[in-house]
Amino acid sequence: MSNSSSMSQFLLLAFSDRWELQLLHFCLFLAISLAALLANGLILSAVACDHHLHTPMGFFLLNLSLTDLGCICTTVPKAMHNSLQNTTTISYMGCAAQLFFFVFFISAEFFLLTIMCYDRYVAICKPLHYGTLLGSRACAHMAAAAWATGFLTALLHTANTFSLPLCQGNALGQFFCEIPHILKLSCSHSGYLREIGLIGVTVCLVFGCFVFIVFSYVQIFRAVLRIPSQRGWHKAFSTCLPHLAVVSLFLSTGTFGYLKPSSISSPSLELSLSVLYSVVPPALNPFIYSLRNQELKVALRKIMTGYFSGVIKCQFSGV
C-alpha cells in the first residue's frame, strides 16, 4: 500500500494524446497567460501611477489584479510545460505548492470581491459616510483580512489534504492539483471526513459572502432606481456592472464546475470546465473592468500613449 510519505509524484490529466494537439494547447495557454499578464500588469501600473485611481475601488482593483495574476501563474505554467515536454508528471511537493497557492488566490479573490461589493454599497447607498467607512486604514485592514483569510484557508486545506494516506494510485483526473481529485486517492476514512468538514465550513463562509453580495445589490438597485436623472443611473450602473459581471463569472463557472451532475461527467468535460473556472475568470477580469470604468480607461490610454511616444522618440534619436 503506497501512501503520501512514499509517493514522489502525481500524474496529471493530459489535454490530448497527440503531439500536435498538445502543441496547440501550449500555444492557446501561452496566448491566454500573456494576455492576462499584460492586462493585469497594465491595471497595476495604471492604479499605481494615476492619482485619480488612488481610491478605495482602485486599491481593491489592484489587489484583485494580484490575485488574478497569482491564479494564472499557479496553474498555467505547469500545464504549458507538460504539453511542451509531452509529460504528465508533477512532483509531490510541487503538487502541494500548486494546491496551496490555487486555494490561496481563489479564496482571497472571492473575499476581495465581497469587499468591493461593500465599497459599491457604501458609495451609492451611504455616500456621505464613504470617506469615514472606507478610509485608507479601513481599506488596508479589509484587504489584509481578505489575504489572511485566504492564506489560512489554503493552509488548513493543504495541510489536511496532504496528511491523508493515499492508496488509490497517483493519477489525478485534472490538469492541475485540486482537492477533490486528491481526496479520491485517499484511503483514510477519518481524514476524508475531516477534509469534508473543512470544505463544509469553507462553503458556509462562501455562502455567507454570497448572501451579503446579493443583499448589497438589492439595496444598491433600490437606491439607483430612486435617482431622478438618467445620468446618475448611468454613472451608478457603470461602476456596479463590472463588479457584478466579475462576481457572476466567478461564481457561475466555479459552481457548475464543482456541482455538475455526475451523469454528464467525462475526462474531456472535466478538463474544459476546469479551464473555465481556473483560467478564464482571471484572464477576463481586467478586460471586464477596463470596458466600463472610464477613469481606468483614461489611465490606461495615458500609459499606452506615453509608452508609444517613448518608443517613437527612441527610434528617432537612434536615427
Descriptive overview:
- By secondary structure, the chain is mostly helical.
- About 75% of the residues lie in helices and about 0% in strands.
- Strands 1-2 form a two-stranded antiparallel ribbon.
- The protein has helices at about 20-50, 55-85, 90-125, 130-135, 135-160, 180-185, 190-225, 230-260, 265-280, 280-290, 295-319, and strands spanning about 10, 90.
What keyword list fits this structure?
319 residues, globular, disordered N terminus, mainly alpha
Helix content: over 70%
Sheet/helix structural class: mainly alpha
Going across the biggest sheet, name each strand in turn. 1-2
Please tell me what the overall shape is: globular
**For the CA atoms, what is the radius of gyration?**
22 Å
H/E series, N to C?
A: EHHEHHHHHHHHH
Average pLDDT for all residues: 81
Main beta-sheet annotation: 2 strands, antiparallel
How far the N terminus sits from the C terminus, by CA atoms, comes to 71 Å
**Structure annotation, total helices:** 11
Low-confidence stretches: 1-5
The beta-strand count equals 2
Strand content: under 5%
